[in-house]
Design a protein that fits this description.
The chain is α/β, with parallel strands linked by helices. 42% of the residues lie in helices and 19% in strands.
């Protein structure tokens, strides 16, 4: 969806184990028209991604069952590359060096709504320059998942 000059993604899983942060971001992004699905850990995020192709991801680095960067690598291997905004209260931007891409950004908590919206728009714009158009039909996404599993 377009907001001013920036394009805001419409479907974004939020992978965040802190309920207060997740609730705040859910409310904040809902005002912008973004559909958020919250996953509290990596396993739940993988289950969510089995059923829909999001426009981008918001991923906490410190999850209870895995490291957010490792989760992103698993997501990429299974479902293909997605634009992502990583966040952490103790972020080490050097960790993102291993991802080497403009479609990935790191935010250090706390951050404001505009910073997050700008980051989402930036990673989606960068991804659009390098990828095919996203599939809109969830059945196509499930077929792709079935092929990836083989």
């Amino acid at each position: 969806m377009k907001r001013g000059q920036r394009i805001i993604p419409e479907n974004v899983p939020l992978i965040e184990d802190d309920a207060a942060i997740a609730s705040g971001l859910l409310k904040l992004l809902a005002v912008e028209g973004v559909k958020i699905t919250v996953a509290e850990d990596g396993a739940e995020a993988m289950r969510i991604l089995e059923h829909s192709r999001p426009d981008a991801l918001i991923v906490d680095i410190g999850l209870p069952d895995c490291d957010g960067l490792e989760l992103f690598e698993r997501i990429t291997a299974r479902f293909g590359r997605l634009p992502a905004v990583f966040s952490s209260g103790h972020a080490d931007p050097a960790n993102l060096g291993r991802l080497h891409s403009a479609d990935v950004l790191m935010l250090t908590k706390p951050y404001d709504a505009e910073t997050l919206l700008d980051a989402l728009a930036d990673v989606c714009a960068a991804a659009a320059l390098h990828e095919q158009p996203p599939m809109n039909d969830s059945d196509d996404w499930n077929v792709s998942n079935d092929r990836a599993a083989k």
